[in-house]
Amino acid sequence: MQTANRLGTVPSGNSERWETAARNGIRIHEIFNEARFEEKLRILAAGYKKRFGDLLEYNVEDELKKFQGWREKLTPHCVDAVTFMKAAQDDSSKKILIEGANALMLDVDYGTYPYVTSSNTGLGGAITGLALNPTKIKEVIGVVKGYTTRVGAGIFKTEDLGEAGTKLQEIGRKWACRPVAAADAAGWTLPSSNTPYKDPETGDLIDYFPADLEYLEKCEVVYEDFKGWQTPITSVKEYEDLPKETKEYIEYIEKFLGVPIKWMGTGPNRDDMIFRRKAFNKF
Question: Where does IMP bind (predicted)?
Fold first, then answer.
């Protein structure tokens, strides 16, 4: 695990535990084969001991003892994933809802590499991770916040280390994250038009997110100003009842992304939600 310049997610050491790609990881069914589990665990521990030396604080014997008790508790919760998911997908009386945990920019293939997590965080990861039949997927919902945050290191061009960023952390209760610049004297800000970055040498606007992080670091962010609003919107249930400035902000994001916004969260509670019935008629 990196400390001073850690990667893209919370510091849990997940990056160093990703043995699957090395073909020596312990699979779930092997937990229930006591001899095989012990053999593989000792091999893994020996490998990490060579790699990290005295920095590795890990006791194989303690781990094996823990699994003596865990094995029985885990048994009723483990199934053959392919068989289980196929049955669920073929059952017309069931609906499957899948929720992702990490944002797309933390995807190991399409994120801000190397400041990423160790798996695919997008739709592809859900398909392979859950043995889903892609043709069974009926709807894909992208979830975004009204302002962007980031966990860990990595380039974050719109990060605000000043008063506005601190205020956003307080309101959004996102103390483990780095906040984006989202408010100024004129109100709310967002990268403008379809071209949020400007080439550092030519000054030309670019309409893509650069994969070259050195190039991205040199790019200039282009903003568009919006009028803010002071009216609380937590109790609002209908889109038409939102302040004019709020609707302008939302509709600009729709235009910028080219996708409809169907739901809007207005507070921390489950029912703090606005559903736009006419959202898809515009696209």
Answer: 23, 102, 117, 173
Q: Is the pLDDT of residue 174 over 90?
A: no
Rounded Cα distance between 162 and 274, Å, is: 31
- On whether 231 is known to bind a ligand per the annotation, the reply is no
What the chain holds in terms of domains, given with CATH numbers, is 1-78 (1.10.300), 79-140 (3.40.440.10), 149-282 (3.90.170.10)
- The predicted pLDDT at position 194 comes to 46
pLDDT tens string 15-70: 544 566 677 889 999 999 999 999 999 999 999 899 999 888 999 999 999 999 99
For residues 274 and 266, is the Cβ–Cβ distance under 8 A? yes
Question: Which alpha helices (DSSP H) does the chain contain, by range?
Answer: 28-31, 34-52, 60-74, 81-90, 123-129, 163-172, 213-218, 244-257
To the question of whether residue 102 is assigned a binding role by annotation, the answer is: yes
